[in-house]
Amino acid sequence: MEDTSQAADAAGKTIGEFVAEDYRMARVFEKYGIDFCCGGSVTLATACREKGLDPAPLLQEIAAAKVEPPDRSRNYASWDLPFLADYIVNTHHGYIRDEAGGIAAYARKIAEVHGARHPEVIEIADIFFRIAEDLMAHLREEEEVLFPAVKRIEEAKKEGREPAPEDRALIKQTLDRLSQDHVEVGDAIHKIRHLAQDYAIPDDVCNTFTLTYKKLKEFEDDLHTHVHLENNILFPKVRIS
């Protein structure tokens, strides 16, 4: 009876909660194609139902993952908010700024060269260009509006002061907009993966095509971690701070 109750409780937890509590869970969900960042608000039971999966094997793999040695450097949920915000900027914002322009250029190139035989790459190039453009505005809003307000609130709390009401109002207003941005960019990157057939490389393409798909997958993987840190850890903590 106890095992059944525990399984029911676990099935009712959201995917984001699993990964926020223990980042080792991400590997399990990735294996089954379950989105733990943009789709992290759904429960395990719902995610399995949508994928046509039996939750029992996933719960067994989750339990097995928990006994593996943890990577303390990835215990993001234990980090204070200013440190987590700086980490996101230095690691994930930096990655986007360094890589997005080059990936967009590669995508345009393979669309020009291979678009006649592989028309999907034309749409992929267009979608990625919009993603890159939209993300630059998103990063600026986080760096210039949200994260400074978060740091001001945390500093006030440390000093025993009441945070400024305008900072709380600013955060609430900004979080709703940024969360919607995450939904939109998540949908777009999933469409790219679908068009690229999980980044399968056709037989009749050049090395640039192969490199572009490799970089698109790397970009998606980085975005998953980036959005997870915000949607499932930073944003919920900011809402209750």
TrEMBL record:
Task: Cite the Hemerythrin-like domain residue spans from the record.
Answer: 87-238
- The keyword Iron belongs to this UniProt entry's keyword annotation: yes
State the UniProt keywords alphabetically: Cytoplasm, Iron, Metal-binding
Q: Which InterPro entries match?
A: Hemerythrin-like, RIC_family, ScdA-like_N_sf
Where does it reside?
Cytoplasm
* Single GO molecular function: metal ion binding
Q: Per the record's keyword annotation, is Iron included, yes or no?
A: yes
A cellular component term from Gene Ontology for this protein is: cytoplasm
Highest taxon listed in the record's lineage: Bacteria
* NCBIfam families on file: FeS_repair_RIC
Q: What protein is this chain from?
A: Iron-sulfur cluster repair protein ScdA
Q: Say which species the protein is native to.
A: Geotalea daltonii (strain DSM 22248 / JCM 15807 / FRC-32)
Q: What is the lineage of its organism?
A: Bacteria, Pseudomonadati, Thermodesulfobacteriota, Desulfuromonadia, Geobacterales
